[in-house]
Amino acid sequence: MNQELVTNFPVTDRVKMALAVSLRGCEELIPQDDWVKKLARSEATGVPLRIKLGLDPTAPDIHIGHTVVLNKMRQLQDLGHQVIFLIGDFTSLIGDPSGRNATRPPLTPEQIKVNAETYYRQASLVLDPAKTEIRYNSEWSEPLGATGMIQLASRYTVARMMERNDFNDRFKAGTPISVHEFLYPLMQGYDSVALKSDLELGGTDQKFNLLMGRHLQQEYGQEPQCILTMPLLEGLDGVDKMSKSKNNYIGISEEPNTMFAKVLSISDVLMWKWYTLLSFKSEADIAALKAEVDGGRNPKDAKVALAKEITARFHSAAAADAAEQDFINRSKGGVPDEIPDVSVSGAPLGIGALLKAAGLAPSGSEATRLIEGGGVRVDSSVVSDKALKLNAGTYVVQVGKRKFARVTIS
């Protein structure tokens, strides 16, 4: 029998506050009424809710786009709930087909082990490690064996599986779908059964897998989890989701000066979405800051505050202060107070391409001529090497006596 949620617990102000924290920046909370009931029961009984986030260690490092769901976990952790950071060492062997138009090559156990070693250490920069339960889904997935896997597969139909967009699109296009890919959402869903999860978090691209957990818990007679999806974070370009392949990302292990400068390079519009999804400031504080900017305060002040908060989270407050001072020093040395700010991508970027992209030279050949004539300076130093390449960061570039630009390369 499926367990039913008890509904006779009062919805107190603290419960309403916890709901508001849950909803901040989220895409969907399904079903919201059930989550309110769970929060009310937890408040009345003092029993923390079990909140699960699973990440497959498919790469050795994570970027700040990955921390959107981690931030939500931390907010719920700070309310006193039990968060479970689940490393998908077993599911990585299958390969997540979410959003894929082709079969994802599964990782080897050796690759998974190497990647998993850094995942929790990096996640601990956001979560409180002393209050985080870390688990590996091989704990219960491997003991299932062939018999258990067949029994699990009997809990879901092929017709329901083919409702999933990426499977459906690939089937219609005649693109191969391997049978083992059907096992991925089943195994992720079974994680929720094994952990008796009350809430599972994920990106919007994980909705099908998250709903699978809810379905399987009902199949196994458990109270079904709620699911909370978070939007995918746009990268530095403000267009595509943050991705290393798009080179529009900030790695959480990047050095402080680069991290600080990259945050400052985002648009004033994107800044407010980043505040909602990445900042630990309250929504009231963010709204007050936005009101000040709307009232005439320089939006750069708000962006500097965000850059310092993010840099301090992944390094230290002292490193964030030093990064701010480094940026000021670069920006002010022998330079007019008002110069254009330009953002370009493609780091490491050749000096000729940079001059052209920044509008400081009309062509590559003219850029070469200017360099050969000693008329180009970067951060007050004369550039003599036509092959110079600049790494990601912010630089004051000068051509001749009067042309300046503050160029941020990502």
Automatic annotation (TrEMBL):
SUPFAM superfamilies: Alpha-L RNA-binding motif, Nucleotidylyl transferase. A motif ('HIGH' region) lies at residues 57-66. Homodimer. ATP binds at residue 244. GO terms for molecular function: tyrosine-tRNA ligase activity. PROSITE patterns: AA_TRNA_LIGASE_I, S4. Gene3D superfamilies: HUPs, RNA-binding S4 domain, Tyrosyl-Transfer RNA Synthetase. Residues 349-410 form the RNA-binding S4 domain. It is an enzyme of class 6 (ligase). Its EC number is 6.1.1.1. Transmembrane segments: none annotated. Its main location: cytoplasm. Keywords: Aminoacyl-tRNA synthetase, ATP-binding, Cytoplasm, Ligase, Nucleotide-binding, Protein biosynthesis, RNA-binding. HAMAP family: Tyr_tRNA_synth_type2 (MF_02007). This is Tyrosine--tRNA ligase. It comes from the Bacteria. A motif ('KMSKS' region) lies at residues 241-245. It catalyses: tRNA(Tyr) + L-tyrosine + ATP = L-tyrosyl-tRNA(Tyr) + AMP + diphosphate + H(+). Catalyzes the attachment of tyrosine to tRNA(Tyr) in a two-step reaction: tyrosine is first activated by ATP to form Tyr-AMP and then transferred to the acceptor end of tRNA(Tyr). Signal peptide: none annotated. InterPro entries: aa-tRNA-synth_I_CS, aa-tRNA-synth_Ic, Rossmann-like_a/b/a_fold, S4_RNA-bd, S4_RNA-bd_sf, Tyr-tRNA-ligase, Tyr-tRNA-ligase_bac-type, Tyr-tRNA-ligase_bac_2. It is found in: Cytoplasm. Belongs to the class-I aminoacyl-tRNA synthetase family. TyrS type 2 subfamily. PANTHER family: TYROSINE--TRNA LIGASE, TYROSYL-TRNA SYNTHETASE.
